[in-house]
Amino acid sequence: MFRSLLVVCLVIVATFVALDSYTQPALNMVLPVPIPVSGTLVEFCVINDQSSDQDRWMAGTPVPMTPVINGLELGQEAPPATSTEVVVTPTEEHVVIPTSESVLAATIEPTPVTAPTPTGVPVNNSPLNIERPADFSPLNFHVLFVGVGFDPDEIPGEMDRLMSSRIRQNFQGLAVDFAYVKEPVHLNFQHLGTIILFTNDQERIDLLSLVRSQYPADSVVIAVKMNEMVGTSLNSGEVIIFSSNNLAVEYLTTHELGHQLGLGDAYEVGYFRPSEFPNSEMFYLDDMPDYLVKALNKLGTMPPMYEAGTCNGRKLYTFYDNYFNLMGLYVFDGPRPWGDTAFTPLQLIIMKNRIAELKGE
After folding, report:
1. For residue range 114-142, what is the model confidence (pLDDT) as tens digits?
2. E strand segments, the chain
3. In a 3-state reduction of DSSP, which class is residue 240?
C-alpha cells in the first residue's frame, strides 16, 4: 500500500515539474522602441454606442443575419425578401475582412434584378470534377476553390482569375498549390456586414467530407457570386467564404489564405474578442505567441514596431507599418519597405513553419 502511494506521489510531482518546466521560447533580441501613433489609441475590446451590428455580433449579441441570394453581381439590388432573417449567435472562430473605401468607391450602382435560379451541384452529389495542379506535392498546402452562384460556363474564367499569376506570386516561396472544382456547387449562406456564414453548418461538414473523399484539400475556398462584399475565414473549420465578383478579390483571397496559414488580423478598426490577442500581428510586450517568438529568432533582425491599440486598456503592438500590411486595412499597391514580397519577411516564416507543422515535417 505504501509503495503504491509513493508511486502515485512521484507521478504527481513529476507532472507538476513538467508543467513548471515549460517556458515561452526566449527572444534572442531586444525589442525596439515602439513608434507611437498620432492621436488616441483604438480600444478594440469594448462595445459602445457607436459599435456596428457586426461588432455586436462579434461580441456575442444575437443579431439577425440576411439570407444571401447567390448569383447577383456586386452592387445589384436584391429582389424583395421571401424568407425571414435568421438570428445566429457567433460560436465559430472566424476572421472578418472589412471593406476598404477604395473598393466601396468602385461598387456598381444598384439595378433591380430578379432572383437568379439556383445552379450548381448539391453537396451530396459525387464525384466532383476537380482541375488538379501540375505542381501538386504531398508536402504542399492544398487549396481548393469552389464557385457558388456562377453559371457553369463562368467557372473556368472565374477560377483562372482567382488563381491568377498575381495571387500565385503572393505565395511565391511557400509550398502552396491551387486546384478548383470545374462546376458550380449549390450552397446557402447568410451575412451581416462583411461576415458570411453557412445558413446550415451541416453543409460545411458535408462539403468538406465530399471534397476530402476525392482530394486532399487543406483549405476549401468558396467564391460566392453575390451583390455585397464579404469575407470570412472559418479557421477552425478550414473553410474560407468570400464574394469574388469585386475589385478586391486579390486582396481577399490572399488575406484569407494568410489566416489559414497562421496569420492574425492587423486592421485597426472594429471589435476584437479579448481571446483573439495576442496573435501574429498584434501582441503585448510581455505576451507574444510562441510561433511569433520563434519566427523573430529565425528572422534574426528586429522589424520596426508600432503601437497598435489597446484591449481592455492593455496596450497592443504590431510589427511593420499597417499601411503596407496585407493582413490589415491594405490599400497600398507599390514598393514595400521590406522588398518585393506581398507578405512581410516575418509573416513568410510563420506561414512556412505552419505548413511544415501541418505536413508533419
Report:
1. 555 656 667 766 689 999 999 999 999 99
2. 63-67, 86-88, 95-96, 130-131, 141-148, 176-181, 189-192, 195-198, 219-224, 231-234, 239-243, 305-311, 314-319
3. strand
Spatial neighbors of 86 by CB under 8 A, at least 6 apart, are: 64, 65, 67, 190, 199
Q: For 26-37, what is the mean pLDDT? A: 93
Quote the distance between the C-alpha of residue 269 and its chain's center. 16
Which secondary-structure segment (H or E) carries 250?
helix 249-260
Distance (Å, whole) CA 3 – CA 294: 43
Amino acid identity, position 236: S
Provide the H-helix boundaries in 101-213: 101-105, 155-162, 165-170, 201-212
Q: pLDDT of 310-351, one tens digit each?
A: 999 999 999 998 888 999 866 666 788 898 889 999 999 999
Distances (CA, A) of 77 to 74, 112, 199, 257: 9, 5, 21, 29
Q: Which 8-state DSSP code applies to residue 6?
A: H
